[in-house]
Design a protein that fits this description.
With about 140 residues, the protein is mainly β. The chain has no helices and 11 strands. A 6-stranded antiparallel sheet has the order 1-7-11-10-8-9, with no helix packed on it. A 5-stranded antiparallel sheet has the order 2-6-5-3-4, with no helix packed on it. It is globular and about 35 Å long. The two termini are about 20 Å apart.
Length: about 140
Amino acid sequence: MAALSITAANVGLVSGSTQVVTYGETVTQGMPVRELASDNKFYKCLHDDATQVAAVGIALTPGGDGDQGVIARAGTTIAMGATLAIGTVYCVGAVDGEIDPTGDLGSGDFVNIVGHAVSTANMLLTFDDLGVAKA
């Protein structure tokens, strides 16, 4: 397996609620995002930094620094715009802003679960920051 190849135009809400946020950098649909407390803006998750890996949402709309966007939070099911393997757990990816199957994480990557595939198109978002780097 490899990082999800997400078609941004196909990412969307299936069920659950959304939140309007302000982005702090350029974000594309399908990217896991984190909130920076110092400015209350949302940024792409960084896989190799324990303080910047904790995903709290998936971007449903694109935007740049200062733009408002919509994200999906935990408990929401979204169409990922990619082909998923049912039952597979997905994490913040090895490249910033990507989502990878857990097995694809490399040594030193911090493990932050985004969710799991409930169909070949949809993911249930759970967001679980394990607080550890893969050995």
